[in-house]
């Protein structure tokens, strides 16, 4: 059942190209329009939306953080992302013109379900992104998009996360389309790139050996830090979460620009810092900034492992190690840059003798608040 892999998590990492292809399959019609599964909302309801909240927990929350960048850029609708366990207790401002997107692999997470019910009480529209057909969260929502990742057995989420990202991009593009597209050319170019993503994810998976080596080199360190900017920031959070869950190691993700406001004091001689580097094309300002951040941490003794676009010679000249990923638009890059971090966590945790599929203290589905 593990299909020749040592762990379900390893198997599920390798299933990601197919899983993302399954998420996209049949969702983009011949006219290039996005098709949702169950929609109890009219196009007019979608046009009336003037604010989006994304609500989720854990890894699903990280998918939400990435989606904020995409939705705001493609639709110009303000979008906030919030942890489900905090959302309802702060009395958020919601009404009929608010879209609340709830993301839940299991569809049963109690924190997320309670946030959904609160949103519905306030008359907000709720769209669910879930991997579990017929689970409670999709059933109680106004619209649903299923991620079709297939059953995920390992407690730490991998393919569920990548398929959530793919589904979230579809929702962002759907919103952009229903509302009249400001960046029509960009949206159709992005759709083409989304369709190309599974092939690129497969390429990343073929070249994971250097990641494994770096992970083994990092075993025995007190902590591992992850830094990123823009959509690389949520990827850094996800990389750190994977490592905490699997290796029981102090791992933290930071917005790279925040380092100098405090966390840089954590860096000692030899501390591994994984940097998620944006493409040097296009948003080159972001690229310049993260290079400065790499220099800052190296000056304090960090060993920098950079995840960057293939051919990025500037990053290669500054980092101690580089892992290259195929070129893709910045907003879609998390589909590729997350994968080496999953492998990093699995390999480091294995070197520390951990139980990969069943980490201590964790459950796959969290049905208590
Ligand atoms: C991390 C992980 C958890 C879940 C979180 C939400 O690897 O699996 O952080 O992402 O418990 O679960 P769902 O998506 O089922 O609501």
UniProtKB/TrEMBL annotation:
Catalyzes the first step in hexosamine metabolism, converting fructose-6P into glucosamine-6P using glutamine as a nitrogen source. One of its GO terms (molecular function) is carbohydrate derivative binding. It comes from the Bacteria. This is Glutamine--fructose-6-phosphate aminotransferase [isomerizing]. Its EC number is 2.6.1.16. GO terms for biological process: carbohydrate metabolic process; fructose 6-phosphate metabolic process; protein N-linked glycosylation; UDP-N-acetylglucosamine metabolic process. The active site is at 364 (for fru-6p isomerization activity). It comes from Glycomyces lechevalierae. It is found in: Cytoplasm. Its main location: cytoplasm. Keywords: Aminotransferase, Cytoplasm, Glutamine amidotransferase, Repeat, Transferase. Residues 42-181, 214-359 form the SIS domain. The chain holds residues 254 to 622 of 622 of the full protein. It catalyses: D-fructose 6-phosphate + L-glutamine = D-glucosamine 6-phosphate + L-glutamate. One of its GO terms (cellular component) is cytosol.
